[in-house]
Amino acid sequence: MQGGGGPAEPVLSKQSVLTDGVKATAKGGEPAPVRASETGRARNWTMPPLRLERECKERTNSATIDNRCVEFDRRENQRCAFTMAARLSRFHNGLVSLRSAFTMAEILLSLTIIGVVAAITLPSLTGNINERTWNTQRKALYARFSQAVSLMDSMNGYSDAETFVTAGLSKVLKINNICDKDHLEDCGITSKQITDNAGSTTSMPKLVSELNPKNTSMSFTDTTASTPIDYSYSNVDSEAAAFETQNGESILAFYNPTCRADMQETDYYGASKVCANFVYDLNGSKGPNAVGKDIGVMTVLYPSDSLVVAPMLYPRNAGVEVDFNEAPKACTALDAEYRVPNIGEVISMFYNSKLLNIASLHYWSSSRYDSTKAWNMSGTTGRIFLEPIDETEAKRVKCVKRN
């Protein structure tokens, strides 16, 4: 007992052990009672594990839970959790070791799947990339040619295609190489078969008449007029020359030394207005060598105040028969980027009919003459004439995408 009448301090039993592991002994060899106040370590005194486990289990249903039992339960839960985690870890490591490598069958199956997916997706992906590249090249090529032609004083005055390129076009356009009619392949012009706009194979044209036989001459008598009218023209069936641009395009050049100016006629042959015509290949002799992809056409109309057109027709389409007012809707129904061709584009279509698959039919243009009439072209003769826009008889329309 301590002085002051305070409560008695707890006395440890004979079987008690100090937390520092040293037994306290009284006189006579008997264990001496130790008070909690004699050492701070006494407060950390713990009951032997087996006894503590037994007593805590016996007190499970007791209303009073000793702090020591709470601590025991906490540690026991931790031990169980650690044991379970260790077992799960060993189980997982065992599974990993069993699956540490693929079998040959699994590898072959994976490669087969990858190959099939690649075979399906790569052509489409590559095709889309090529289309975007060609579209960009077409626009750039058209812009350069339009600027070059605008810098020329006149499209007339040259004897043939080679002279036109050498003495005229090369002065306003950057050209790396010029080839005469006998050495077209030296400028990247393929001697192999190419694919036209209809998907059929054909040869690369070397003469104006190979673009369209009616480019060189045509005669026609209009018997529908009160007095029959004769229409005719004759052009030189000139041979092509070739050149390579600084950007790597291969170009076939066709030249008409007798092209005629725009005289505001209301009835004429479109081929007589063509001064120069170009068939370009954006990547030389490399594939696919197909019109509408890497191959296309550009046409220069009128010797002065020249107009450059480069119609890109909707592929493999013979056209649809509609009246003038419905023609724009027919084109956008095919593709939102396509339009009805203007009068210059219609003339270019006729001039290059073998490559562009133009049939012997009548075709609308988007060009109006006035509020009541619009220009129309005969695919049979290349004759350009006026038709009332309220014409009930349907005409064909070939839709184009402009650069």
Low-confidence stretches: 1-47
Q: What proportion strand?
A: 15-25%
Distance N to C terminus? 111 Å
Tally of DSSP β-strands: 18
User: Whole-number average pLDDT?
Assistant: 80
Kindly state the percentage of residues in helix: 25-40%
Number of helices: 8
Major sheet: order of its strands? 1-6-7-9-10-11
Output the helix-strand order: HHHHEEEHEEEEEEEEEEHHHEEEEE
Helix and strand content put the structural class at alpha+beta
Q: Which outline best applies?
A: elongated
Using the CA coordinates, give the radius of gyration: 48 Å
Please indicate the count of domains. Answer: 2
Largest sheet: 6 strands, antiparallel
Keywords:
disordered N terminus, 2 domains, alpha+beta, 18 strands, 403 residues, six-stranded antiparallel beta sheet, four-stranded antiparallel beta sheet
Textual characterization of the structure:
By secondary structure, the chain is of the alpha+beta class. It folds into two domains: 16-58, no CATH class; 129-401, no CATH class. The chain is built from eight helices and 18 strands. The strands form six sheets. It has a six-stranded antiparallel β-sheet with strand order 1-6-7-9-10-11, with helices on both faces. A four-stranded antiparallel β-sheet has the order 8-16-15-14, covered by helices on one side. Strand 4 and strand 5 form a beta hairpin. Helix 1 crosses helix 2 (67-98). The radius of gyration is 48 Å and the shape is elongated. It starts with 48 loop residues before the first helix and ends with a strand. The model is unreliable at 1-47 (pLDDT under 50).
